[in-house]
Amino acid sequence: MDDAEFSIGIKDVKRIPVITDLIENYFDGDLSALNGIAVRQPGSEFSQSVWKAMRKIPAGKTWSYSDLAKKIGSPAAVRAVGTACGKNLIAPIIPCHRVVKSGGAIGNYGYGVEVKEFLLRHENAI
Length: 126
Prior knowledge:
By secondary structure, the protein is mostly helical. It is built from five helices and two strands. It has one domain (3-122): Orthogonal Bundle (Arc Repressor Mutant, subunit A), CATH 1.10.10.10.
Protein backbone atom coordinates (compact mmCIF):
# COMPACT_ATOMS: atom_id res chain seq x y z
CA MET A 1 0.00 0.00 0.00
CA ASP A 2 1.30 3.40 -0.93
CA ASP A 3 1.15 6.27 1.58
CA ALA A 4 -0.30 8.40 -1.23
CA GLU A 5 -3.48 6.32 -0.95
CA PHE A 6 -3.96 7.79 2.51
CA SER A 7 -3.18 11.42 1.63
CA ILE A 8 -6.78 12.54 1.31
CA GLY A 9 -6.61 15.28 3.92
CA ILE A 10 -8.00 15.67 7.40
CA LYS A 11 -11.44 16.99 8.09
CA ASP A 12 -12.88 17.72 11.54
CA VAL A 13 -16.31 16.12 11.91
CA LYS A 14 -18.55 15.39 14.90
CA ARG A 15 -19.90 12.07 13.63
CA ILE A 16 -18.94 9.58 10.96
CA PRO A 17 -22.03 7.77 9.71
CA VAL A 18 -22.17 4.12 10.78
CA ILE A 19 -18.70 4.15 12.39
CA THR A 20 -19.72 6.51 15.20
CA ASP A 21 -22.77 4.34 15.89
CA LEU A 22 -20.69 1.16 16.00
CA ILE A 23 -18.17 2.71 18.40
CA GLU A 24 -20.99 3.96 20.63
CA ASN A 25 -22.57 0.49 20.53
CA TYR A 26 -19.26 -1.05 21.63
CA PHE A 27 -19.00 1.27 24.63
CA ASP A 28 -22.69 0.66 25.40
CA GLY A 29 -21.96 -3.07 25.74
CA ASP A 30 -22.18 -4.59 22.24
CA LEU A 31 -18.64 -5.92 22.32
CA SER A 32 -18.81 -7.26 18.77
CA ALA A 33 -19.82 -3.90 17.28
CA LEU A 34 -16.27 -2.92 16.27
CA ASN A 35 -16.12 -5.97 14.00
CA GLY A 36 -18.50 -4.13 11.67
CA ILE A 37 -15.91 -1.47 10.85
CA ALA A 38 -13.87 -2.16 7.73
CA VAL A 39 -10.29 -0.97 8.15
CA ARG A 40 -7.01 -0.56 6.35
CA GLN A 41 -3.79 1.14 7.22
CA PRO A 42 -0.34 1.33 5.69
CA GLY A 43 2.14 -1.29 6.81
CA SER A 44 4.33 -4.18 5.77
CA GLU A 45 2.90 -7.52 4.69
CA PHE A 46 3.97 -8.93 8.06
CA SER A 47 2.19 -6.18 10.00
CA GLN A 48 -0.92 -6.66 7.87
CA SER A 49 -0.96 -10.36 8.78
CA VAL A 50 -0.61 -9.52 12.48
CA TRP A 51 -3.43 -6.95 12.35
CA LYS A 52 -5.69 -9.35 10.45
CA ALA A 53 -5.10 -12.03 13.09
CA MET A 54 -5.71 -9.55 15.93
CA ARG A 55 -9.17 -8.87 14.58
CA LYS A 56 -9.93 -12.55 15.20
CA ILE A 57 -9.30 -12.28 18.95
CA PRO A 58 -12.80 -12.36 20.44
CA ALA A 59 -13.87 -9.63 22.83
CA GLY A 60 -13.41 -10.86 26.37
CA LYS A 61 -10.39 -12.98 25.43
CA THR A 62 -6.69 -12.28 25.26
CA TRP A 63 -3.87 -13.86 23.30
CA SER A 64 -0.22 -13.62 24.18
CA TYR A 65 2.27 -12.17 21.74
CA SER A 66 3.51 -15.75 21.38
CA ASP A 67 0.00 -17.03 20.61
CA LEU A 68 -0.38 -14.35 17.97
CA ALA A 69 2.99 -15.22 16.40
CA LYS A 70 1.90 -18.86 16.18
CA LYS A 71 -1.49 -17.91 14.67
CA ILE A 72 0.21 -16.11 11.79
CA GLY A 73 2.59 -19.02 11.19
CA SER A 74 5.73 -17.33 12.55
CA PRO A 75 6.19 -18.74 16.07
CA ALA A 76 9.70 -17.28 16.43
CA ALA A 77 8.56 -13.76 15.52
CA VAL A 78 7.26 -12.77 18.96
CA ARG A 79 9.18 -9.49 19.09
CA ALA A 80 8.16 -8.59 15.54
CA VAL A 81 4.54 -9.21 16.53
CA GLY A 82 5.02 -6.77 19.41
CA THR A 83 6.44 -4.21 16.99
CA ALA A 84 3.44 -4.64 14.68
CA CYS A 85 1.11 -4.16 17.64
CA GLY A 86 2.91 -0.92 18.45
CA LYS A 87 2.48 0.32 14.87
CA ASN A 88 -1.30 -0.23 14.88
CA LEU A 89 -2.87 3.17 14.17
CA ILE A 90 -6.50 2.21 14.60
CA ALA A 91 -6.87 0.79 18.07
CA PRO A 92 -9.21 -0.42 19.47
CA ILE A 93 -10.78 -1.25 16.08
CA ILE A 94 -7.81 -3.52 15.51
CA PRO A 95 -7.75 -4.79 19.10
CA CYS A 96 -4.08 -4.75 20.07
CA HIS A 97 -5.29 -4.22 23.65
CA ARG A 98 -6.25 -7.94 23.63
CA VAL A 99 -2.60 -8.97 23.25
CA VAL A 100 -0.80 -9.57 26.53
CA LYS A 101 2.49 -11.00 27.75
CA SER A 102 2.89 -14.78 27.95
CA GLY A 103 2.78 -14.78 31.74
CA GLY A 104 -0.54 -12.95 31.66
CA ALA A 105 0.83 -9.49 32.51
CA ILE A 106 -0.95 -6.73 30.60
CA GLY A 107 2.11 -5.41 28.78
CA ASN A 108 2.49 -2.09 27.03
CA TYR A 109 -0.08 -0.10 25.10
CA GLY A 110 0.45 2.93 22.90
CA TYR A 111 -2.35 4.82 24.61
CA GLY A 112 -1.21 3.92 28.12
CA VAL A 113 -1.60 0.85 30.30
CA GLU A 114 -4.59 2.46 32.04
CA VAL A 115 -6.49 2.59 28.73
CA LYS A 116 -5.58 -1.02 27.95
CA GLU A 117 -6.82 -2.08 31.39
CA PHE A 118 -10.03 -0.08 30.90
CA LEU A 119 -10.72 -1.77 27.54
CA LEU A 120 -9.98 -5.25 28.91
CA ARG A 121 -12.23 -4.63 31.91
CA HIS A 122 -14.95 -3.28 29.61
CA GLU A 123 -14.74 -6.57 27.70
CA ASN A 124 -14.63 -8.65 30.92
CA ALA A 125 -11.23 -10.02 29.90
CA ILE A 126 -9.66 -9.15 33.27
